[in-house]
Amino acid sequence: MATKKTGRRKWYWGSSLDDFLKQEGIYDDVVAQVEKEAIARQLQQTAKKWKITEKRVAEPTKTRRGQLDKLLNPKDSNITIKTLHERIRINGTRVLTLKELLRPGLRAIFVGCNPSPRSVGIGHYYQGRHGIRFWSRLREFHITGLLPAGCQDIHAFEQGYGFADLVRRPTASARELTRAEMVAGVDGLIARLNRIGDRPIIVFTYAKPWNLARDRLEQMGYCVLKMPAPYAPQNKVRAEMRRIRNVICGDLITPNSIP
Asked: Confidence class of residue 204 from pLDDT cuts 50, 70 and 90?
């Protein structure tokens, strides 16, 4: 349907730009690149305002200068927002969430309840208060090696650990999720795990998703474990983390390394 524009503007026919990009199959790529450019420019402006050099930006997260240069270059398409986030459709609405780190050959997959807005904003798993305890425990009990702050999930993924959530919709609190949403999340999680093709150990980081999904996963042949609660007594944390380490790592650890 034609829409007449006044003044010097021309007549336009057809659908919107979004529809055109979707028809061409490039909508997600274009959106990802635009978002990446916006983030890169915001980082550049902030660094300039506070007179922060690229070297100072790179040091805290142990980021290579080459990678930082690519990230700060709005036109560099080799690094896009898709390496940090993923847009999915939930009830017909496009939602920005964390991209799950799943692949064949993983030793274990850590499954949370759902992403927090803080983690989605940063673009990495477990970046809140509970996340600090989570990463600290993995390192303290020798489940992972060294993990640079701010991008621990990427380095843990390289060491053989995956990351997923029961429900992919971000909320400030898991209490905002309905029971129906979480029950449906079990089906979604199982479908995503099935696409991997093998049976890694599943470690739930919270009790609620563990209670909902444990039985079905064990019936499918998965070994299912649960992390201790964030504020559990220290003796309980030690006992549960040692069990998780022994199941995941087995003979990959030595007695002298046990905390």
From this structure: very high
Give the C-alpha separation, 46 to 201, whole Å: 42
Residues of the chain with CATH 3.40.470.10: 100-257
Classify the phi-psi angles of 105: left when phi > 0, otherwise alpha if psi is within -120 to 50, otherwise beta: left
Question: Does residue 206 surpass a pLDDT of 50?
Answer: yes
Cβ count near 88 (within 10 Å): 14
- Give CA–CA dist 216/190, Å, rounded: 9
Residue 68 pLDDT grade (very low, low, confident, very high; cuts 50, 70, 90) = low
State the CATH class of domain 100-257. alpha beta
| CA neighbor of 213 nearest in space, from 243, 191, 242 | 191
Q: What residues contact residue 119 under an 8 Å CB cut-off, 6+ apart?
A: 98, 125, 126, 127, 128, 131, 170
Which of 109, 101, 100, 103 is closest to 201 using CA atoms? 109
Q: Which two tokens stand for residue 222?
A: 């998965």
Arithmetic mean of pLDDT over the chain: 80
